[in-house]
Amino acid sequence: xxxxxxxxxxxxxxxxxxxxxxxxxPALRTVLVTLGTAITVFVLATFATFALGAASGSNPAAVALxxxxxxxxxxxxxxxxxxxxxxxxxxLDWISGAVTGDLGASWFTTIPVADSIAQAxxxxxxxxxxxxxxxxxxxxxxxxxxxxxxxxIVDRAVTLLTTVSATVPAFVAAIALILLFAYAIPIxxxxxxxxxxxxxxxxxxxLVLPSVALSxxxxxxxxxxxRTTLVxxxxxxxxxxxxxxxxxxxxxxxxxxxxxxxxxALSVLGVHAPRLVGGAVITEVIFGMPGLGQLAxxxxxQGDVPVVQGVLLITIAMVVIIGVIINLIIARTGxxxxxxx
Length: 341
Fold this sequence. Notes:
12 helices
């Protein structure tokens, strides 16, 4: 009697586990590479920042003690500040303290730098986030309208507006908005800052003008990039197949074409992230908002290096974090399946 041996098919749960692992590995690899790059950029940028502060030649001991101070007094205070230690030792102490939230103290006010930044940081973060949201809103709305009306009046209007917006610096736009809304249309406040816990409506109103001024350049570039990629995507075969299947224009654009075309536009936002964060520091000075820009400006005029280094550290961290988020979003949207179903 012949015995036939048949191979048992793997259970469905085992197949699903294998497929899940294969789907997780590329995503995990993307996260690890992105985090590794972010940490490298952060370390290099903070090292350069600390080196510039050390090379500034600022002598806080001499300034604090005055002209009557002896060299022995200056050396004693420099020892208190830790300025007589080697550069690498000071950097390692500074960066290790920064990781735990200790950024040292001001040379002149002795106030902890972390406390000063904690008061100013919400202002700069609010402006930067507002500018990013408006840039995405203006950019995606303009890019979609221009793409679906290619060659029409709306397309030409969007092209004209984006061209003009891209050529106007943020500080020029800020001054123009102040003049417009301070005299002609006094709707929004042109100076000052209201914390959200005090008045949520007032907080939103005071962010409108600085966020608009800061978002024009990024919004224009996003709109132009999205318009270009979306026009090409709408001519792909799977989009034509979706039209043949009777899908509506809105669903075709938003559900099938936009996820593919948005990846280059998000890459543009990643390029503009340092400008948006750095521009927030500059824009808040124009609008008289007590953020990191005002703090850094006062510290730089006094030669208060620990405060300046602390502000630069937080600014670098904001840029790196925003870049990581954008890269992860791009990696996620880049994997969208092109399906007309």
